[in-house]
Amino acid sequence: MSESPAQAPARFAYWVPNVSGGLVTSTIEQRTDWGYDYNRKLAVLAENNGFEYALSQVRYMASYGAEFQHESTSFSLALLLATERLKVIAAVHPGLWHPGVLAKLGATADHLSGGRFAVNVVSGWFKGEFTALGEPWLEHDERYRRAEEFIRALRAIWTEDHAELAGDFYRIRDFSLKPKPLNSPARPHPEIFQGGNSTAARAMAGRVSDWYFSNGKDFDGVTEQIRDVRASAAAAGRPAPRFGLNGFLIARDTEAEAREVLREIIAKADTEAVRGFGAAVQQAGQSTADRTGMWQDSSFEDLVQYNDGFRTGLIGTPEQIAERIVAFKRRGVDLFLLGFLHYLEEVEYFGERVLPLVRELEAREEGHEADAATPAGRAPAAARH
Predict the structure, then answer these.
(1) In a domain? residue 378
(2) Cα gap 216→214, rounded to integer Å
(3) How far lies 137's CA from each of 133, 295, 323, 373, 381, in Å?
(4) Which helix H or strand E contains 88, and what residues bound it?
(5) How far is it, in rounded angstroms, from Cα 97 to Cα 383?
(6) Which domain of life is it from (predicted)?
């Protein structure tokens, strides 16, 4: 019997550095590389150090300290073929992809990888990419309406023999895809992730997505978002999506060392690039009716890690970070999407020093829950035989 999300151990993903500039917009040394050879080595290391997922980023146009990028779907397939267990999530933009074309690519990638392909549907924040390519730019809530149709079309094509959709953005007429992706009762099609902080994003996640990714958040922010997404799912009469949280992890032997690394990252921030990025993304939150969009309340320091990863607070000793991860899990976080300064060294450090402590704390909590569920003075059933 499969574990319920509440019983399942915390899962871990990492941001694939297939974009130049690393995961912080800073001139601090980042021992990472956007090339394939480095990323192939990293993927194998990651799956051997407790990582179940990897997320390939997507940028189409050189900008904001990210001058060079590898395309996400092709790069994801390459990483899938280089690994044995790692699930790789390719980020894609509705408006630049047609769902039928992506469905075909995804089915092939799924077969080639033995069922490890996944997709992250990005509603889009970078207006400059769309206008540079001559594609229409939609305002915030319209982008989410399009993304929702995109997901509905994708799922229909992956699971139905004669897919139909009469939408405002996509029209699918008696479309049959063969072969379908690999499927099982637990995974009827490749997993569909989405991100976003806005009210529209939360509502969409509840209606159509398998996973909801949040930008970096503290405990209160996570609790609020999970509540809203679960309410949306309940209103739609479907199981709630699982919840992923972005975090930039700085684990060092002492808290002082970790805090000094954070201080240096911010002190050496590429001010021009951070401000350029901020100008491009903060309009996304400002364009929502209730001003709840991504990056709406991000400070300059937050934007140095461009998905607010410092806010999650995974900075300190292995013990401190493990305790915080389990505290987030207690609030409903299923998956931690992590970025690092020096990927190879820090992914291995995570696997050797942080992950065992997380598993130890999880086991301890499960033991306490089992003790609490056992009537006083009565031994567990297993102990009575």
Answers:
(1) no
(2) 6
(3) 10, 19, 43, 54, 62
(4) strand 87-92
(5) 57
(6) Bacteria
Among 304, 283, 310, 279, which residue's Cα sits nearest to residue 294? Answer: 283
Q: Whole domain around residue 250: which residue ranges?
A: 11-367
* Contact partners, residue 378, CB within 8 Å, separation at least 6: none
H or E, element range at 256: helix 255-267
Which uninterrupted H or E stretch holds 39? helix 36-47
- Nearest alpha-carbon partner for 243 in 115, 378, 333: 333
pLDDT of residue 380: 43
Identify residue 218 by its one-letter amino acid code.
D
The answer, yes or no, to whether the previous bond of 179 is cis (omega within 30 of 0) is yes
4 occurs within a structural domain: no
Q: What is the pLDDT of residues 221-269, one digit of tens each?
A: 999 999 999 999 999 999 999 999 999 999 999 999 999 999 999 999 9
3-state helix, strand, coil in the chain (%, to 5): 45, 15, 35
The C-alpha atoms of residue 249 and residue 252 are separated, in whole angstroms, by 10
Q: Which residues contact 103 (CB under 8 A, 6 or more apart)?
A: 153, 154, 157, 158, 177
Q: Give me the CATH number covering residue 60.
A: 3.20.20.30
Number of folded domains that form the chain:
1
SS3 of 62, please? coil
Domain presence at residue 382 = no
- The verdict on pTM exceeding 0.85 is yes
Within-domain flag for 2: no
What separation in angstroms does the CA of 181 have from each of 116, 141, 158, 171?
Answer: 10, 30, 7, 21
Neighbouring C-alpha atoms within 13 Å toward the C-beta of 117: 30
* Residue numbers in the chain where pLDDT is lower than 50: 1-6, 377-385
